[in-house]
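Review form for a predicted model. The reviewer records the input and the model, then writes brief findings.
Reviewer: anonymous (R2)
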Amino acid sequence: MNKPRIALIQGDPAGIGPELTAKLLHLDTVIEAAHIALFSDLRLYESGCAIAGVRPPVHVVSAVDRLDFSSGTPNLIDIRCVDPKTIAMAEVSGVCGAAVLRFFGEGLDACHAGQLDGLCFMPFNKASMHAAGLGVEDESQWAKKRIDHPSRVGEFNVIDGMWNARVTSHVPLREVADRISVTEIVSAAQLAYATLREAGFANPRIAVAALNPHAGDNGAIGHEEIDIIAPAIFDAQKLGINCSGPFPSDTLYPRVRDGEFDCALSMYHDQGQIAIKLLGFHMGVSVHGGFPFPMTTPAHGTAFDIAGKNKANTEPARRALTMATRMAQGALRQT
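Model under review:
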């Protein structure tokens, strides 16, 4: 089996992304598992190497159609758009956001065209991306628009085999109750089931979270469980999705952690994120499901507090890249 070809997208230039990239490409296990195509500015890569104190060799090319993995050396597509000497570390910047969108966009295009098999991006800074004109709520929606992808996409957080999916994501909390519906929950359950199947689960067990405390206490603390969530679970089960609930979220996550379920389906962002990050903030991986190719990133952010200090923990980034590689390898086996 040929090694998968993975797009590695440079993270925000003012954060820990360049340092992480250099450290990742210094790992033999990374180089042995996949053909890596790094989308970056060569100057930014060199600055990351200087911070990390390592300089892994790269084969520099000017465009994706010039990629050459014959030597086994990672390729760097040199996208000249940001000079690290001109940016301030640890600061929100439209210039940095624009660079990230260039790197990310060209990596997405290459995966969508079948030139690469999967994608892993180092941490982005949403404020910088919005300053550069992101125009949508998050990078998943931007990627969906970039490749004109018609299907639902969503972000999953993963730690040690425990998955968390969401019905709503980066929206104000006051809007959550109005945004959940039978259709939205069923669609989220379908996406969760399909994404976990791509990740190697034969028949994923999905636990659906309630919205209200105590799962609404039979209507005493809200009717969403009775009127929306339970009917959605019933409809999803009729579609062959192995899901159950709704369960109070304060007892659901220990059951997922202990192996009774493979995935929790939360109603809103922090309902699941708090539980996942308490279990291991520095070990989590985010999987962007629903795309025609695997896409992952470490679950932490740009860590401006330690940017440029050679203190970044590589493990979440390594796990994210490993997840993208394994998912891409699984897809190649099916072709």
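Findings: The first helix runs from residue 17 to 25.
Further findings: The chain has a mean pLDDT of 95.
Recommendation: see findings above.
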